[in-house]
From TrEMBL:
PANTHER family recorded: OLFACTOMEDIN-LIKE PROTEIN 3, OLFACTOMEDIN-RELATED
Superkingdom assignment: Eukaryota
Keyword Disulfide bond: yes
Disulfide pattern: C133-C315
Record protein name field: OLFL3 protein
Subcellular localization: Secreted
InterPro entries documented for this protein: Olfac-like_dom, Olfactomedin-like_domain
Species of origin: Odontophorus gujanensis (marbled wood quail)
Length: 392
């Protein structure tokens, strides 16, 4: 190739890199423009989403404010309704007090003759009081729900005759282990039984009619006939036992079919509340000797078993609590005073506040003038307002 041809090719070779560079710059510019367009679109979408989110937030805040106002209005209506219900219950209580329920005694001449004959056999003469106790229940002054412990049916109590602060808990209607708490505080504060001592009984109990009296546990054992077991809580030994002298026993309370004998204590001593097929419509009462477990005296009371859920004795007068539907408000509708001092007309119609279910046990403490009740697993204390009997 000649020199003059080389000189002609040199400009062409220099122009080729400049063209490639120009194409590359144009490509980069197109890509940057596309990226800027996408960034602008993202910015527009972000602004639109922010606006929609702000509008939605304002809408939700408005709805929440409206809901809060409606909630306050509903709360005020509920409080007003509760106040009206309470006032209605008080008015109903007043009307029921002014118009008491009809007497529990059925007028049946045959039954009266049969009861009179039975009364002679069982020496149903007037009871001779051992103390000067002349008090009777006027009303339930206060109710305190302590806690929920154990099964739906059971019993909790203190020693009815001593000064001990121990709490005795009988869980269930058929068991052989008693929980003992040192004080009410430990029983109330702790949900478990780790703070409680355990007493293993030699025989299992039946029902919820047990009683702690003067350092002894009196409870019912069923092995063929019903037996009253006297158990020394200090020595943890059986001191005495006695077959209860009543034939063909039936559940004493219509609403508590697991209890055949209800042991009770008052200012006069130890009592047994029971029922038999001989007089299956009504409840019977017996005075027990706490030392020998002998029956001192027996009565056929006019208090019916039907709709009865529990009973206790105060100053020699049997008080039976009734309930027509469960859960509802029970009331002491029948009172039988063995000394004849308190007539049915003078006895107060005592109402218990509405609860969770039904009473499986009611234990009166003569020392504290209050009733320890077990209501569907809840342990309740009823403080009683007392008044004097009218002496006859």
């Amino acid at each position: 190739m000649g020199p003059w041809r080389c000189l002609l090719l040199l400009p062409l070779l220099a122009a080729a890199p400049r063209a490639q560079q120009q194409h590359f710059m144009e490509y980069v510019e197109r890509r940057l423009a596309l990226l800027e367009e996408r960034i602008a679109q993202w910015h527009d979408q972000s602004s639109r989403y922010s606006t929609e989110l702000r509008d939605f937030k304002n809408q939700v805040l408005g709805m929440l404010e409206t809901a809060e106002k409606e909630r306050e209005a509903l709360r005020a209506e509920a409080e007003g309704a509760a106040a009206r219900v309470d006032r209605l219950e008080r008015e109903v209580d007043y009307l029921e007090t002014q118009n008491p329920a009809p007497p529990c005694v059925e007028v049946d001449e045959v039954l009266m003759e049969k009861q009179a004959a039975t009364a002679k056999q069982r020496k149903n003469e007037k009871y001779t009081k051992l103390t000067d106790c002349s008090d009777t229940i006027a009303s339930v002054r206060a109710m305190k729900i302590l806690k929920r412990f154990g099964s739906s049916a059971g019993l909790w109590t203190k020693d009815a005759a001593g000064s001990s602060e121990k709490i005795y808990v009988f869980d269930g209607t058929a068991n052989d282990t008693v929980f003992v708490f040192p004080r009410m505080r430990e029983f109330t504060l702790f949900s478990t039984t780790r703070r409680a001592a355990r007493i293993k009984l030699p025989y299992p109990w039946v029902g919820t009619g047990h009683l702690v009296y003067g350092g002894y546990l009196y409870y019912i054992r069923q092995q063929g006939p019903f037996q009253v077991i006297k158990f020394d809580l200090a020595n943890r030994t059986v001191v005495d036992s006695s077959v209860f002298p009543a034939e063909e026993q039936i559940p004493v309370f219509g609403l508590s079919p697991f209890t055949y004998i209800e042991l009770a204590a008052d200012e006069e001593g130890l009592w047994a509340i029971y029922a038999t097929k001989e007089n299956e419509k009504n409840i019977c009462l017996a005075k027990l000797d706490p030392d020998s477990l002998d029956i001192e005296q027996m009565w056929d009371t006019p208090c019916p078993r039907e709709n009865a859920e529990g009973a206790f004795v105060v100053c020699g007068a049997l008080h039976v609590a009734y309930n027509t539907r469960l859960p509802s408000r029970s009331r002491v509708q029948c009172v039988f005073d063995v000394s004849g001092t308190l007539t049915p007309e003078e006895a107060s119609l005592v109402y218990f506040p509405k609860r969770y279910g039904s009473h499986s046990s009611m234990k009166y403490s003569p020392r504290e003038r209050q009733v320890y009740a077990w209501d569907d697993g809840y342990q309740i204390i009823y403080r009683m307002e007392m008044k004097k009997k009218l002496e006859v």
